[in-house]
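Entry 14. Structure prediction run on the chain below.
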Amino acid sequence: MTVVWSMTNERTETPMVSSPHEAMHRIFQDHPGLFSQVSEVLGIDFAPPTSVTVLPNDLTEAAPLERRVDTLLRLETEGDEPLLLAVEAQRGKDPDKPASWLYYASYLLTKYRLQPMLLVVCQDRATAEWAARPVRFGPPQWPLLTLRPLVAGPNNMPVITDPAEVRKDLALATLSAITHATDPGIGAILKAMTNVLRDEPEDLANTIVELIAQGLGKHPAGEIWRKLVAVDLSFYKSPLSQEIREEGREEGREEGRAEGQTQRAAEDVLEVLEVRGLNVPEAVRERITDCDDPETLRRWHRRAVTAAAAEEIFTDE
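Output returned:
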């Protein structure tokens, strides 16, 4: 063993490189055309190189590069080896993703010495079909690696609209609802969810309410879910339910304020006409009090100051 010092002055040990190890790869630097000959022996056709550049062999990333899988789980079952499950949520096609996913798999295998598995979850069919295609890395004559993730999306997840089926597996039904966010029948899917959640413990129901709300996001289905929660699950106290109720109260306050302002504006128009001593027929009074457009009332108010008769405030209307 040879002793080296790292930049942090901590002593680390690395195995000394053996001569056979050095020779087995160095020969390709000295004789780069050798690769085409070796490949021919192995039955793979690689043309001889016309130009060769020896690149730095240090693959260490000088600057830390943060790589995070969305969710990583270690799954253990009786009698089988533990499995590492990486779960990725994919919103659209990304040509750089397969290489990242392959990196995740290689890193997890190296670090944990457990077989990795990748599950990609999508909300649209095109992305799901793209993610499910095997991606081969390496020359076409002899691909070195093949990436084959499992993919869950609207093309293969069940459409669950029967409350009895929702009740059998609430977690699967929740994922199904999220993956079918753009399905034309999403209303029936979500209605089945609220029918079941009414009978579930509040802490479980609240978690699912929030998960579905987060999963549907700004899709139109998200608004459908909010309305269903407000009506069918109004007795729950989940953050979403409280948010919806507060929004309703605020809308009511806004409507009340707007109605009060409109009423005062109509009273101002009538007051100007009466102070000026103009006769205000009942039809004119009703038209003013029935108006709910603030801009129209402001226009009538300005005309009431100079109009010779109450009816003249409607000129050009």
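Residues 121 and 186 are 18 Å apart (CA to CA).
Filed with the rest of this week's runs.
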